[in-house]
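Practice problem: predict the structure.
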Amino acid sequence: MQNTHSVIQTQTPLRRLWGDPPTGIEQNKQVVLIGLMVPIMMVILNLMMFGVALPTIRNTFQIRADIVGWIVTVYTLPFMIAMPLYGRLGDELGKRRLFLIGVATFLTGTIIAFSAADLRVLMVGRAIQGLGSASVVPLCIAIISQIFPASERGKALGTWNSIGPITGLVAPFAGGLLIDHLGWRMIFGPVLLVGVAALWVIREKVPHKQIRAQFNVLCAFDWGGVALLAIAVTTLTFYLSSPSITGVAALQDWRLLVAALLFFWIFIFWERRHASPYVALSIFANKTLSRASFIAGVRMFTMSGISFLIPLYLTDVHALSASSTGLVLMAHAGALLATMRVGGQLADRWTSRWPVTGGSIVQVGTMISFTLLPDTVPLWGVVIVVIVHGLGAGTSLAALHRASMGKIPQEQVGMAAGLYSMVRFTGTMLGPVVGGVALQQGLDRSLLPIEAYQTVFGLIAGVAVLGVVFGLGLRE
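Answer:
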């Protein structure tokens, strides 16, 4: 009795925060699923509100389209690179512990962005946000994949993903109102509130296995692989957007391309010889995971291109306010919601091949439609195309998640989820960079704004075709 009392007395507030939740490990999986919706709501709320704010931020700081793309990319770059980190360390140190650290990091970046007085501070805050939010997607997918059997996994992932478009039914318009009446910085207020709620939910509802932090695991971790991958991806991104980095035209600074290829080669050489590599390249021998990851990357390239371009397009071509732009984005989120859960159910019934291929075909069709819309088209015509795109993109999402995890052993779920998420969000990183550079090139060639936007939409359509081609080969 005395020993028990002594243990209780020595528990510090920090130990109680990071330790076991009061309800223990065994929890109803539906409660856990609902709880995991809160952190993803935090991420989506931040992304959607910030997307609506892009035209206002551009005008506030008087920056070019390619620099606007970097405001988005500075978030997605650490977001993408850190995903395997959370997946790997989650397997070793406990997913719940890493989850709490990630959300706390995100909140720190949000506070910095909220208080930013200049563009550089804003970009620092966005980078820290990206580093923290990288924990959410791979850890959520890994936890869901562990607690739900394969026969229920597609439906569960579709249900979890549905909170994204549900948030999108409110976030864009609410963000637009805040921007129009209180200024763009106020969009971070709701994000902070939901982030604090996410901390509490993870602490109370997410199961916690009895894994003690092993600092020798951190010492032996492949930090060299992390650094090499970060340098390689960053250098490649610099090559794609070189005018804002070196002053050389995009895709023409061969020094950056050679450096990127060299670092990727060193990274692969390093990983193949490391006893416990950061990116276990052998896992990509699973053809279903590799194919699903690539398709997911193409899908997110298209999605992020749309998210980046539509607010600017509506502002420059149709002269909409932030709140009106938010209403159009709400329609897109509603369309995503309408088909997201259905896509998971169809995948459980018919495999992932058909929902993924059908969704990719719709994405290609809508991008082509945007290349044909004149600047005189009524706004309702634009809204229809946006809605159709959302229907197609929503159909494929849960099916891709299901396919990627379908043949992964339980002990590798965290790592696989991290790698899948990294490849997937590589598309998210590249979409705004390529879109911003292509848009600025069009404007520099003295194209009319509508012509410049049509060119970029055509470029995105060409990339989206790859999703159709590879989708036809899915077998899971």
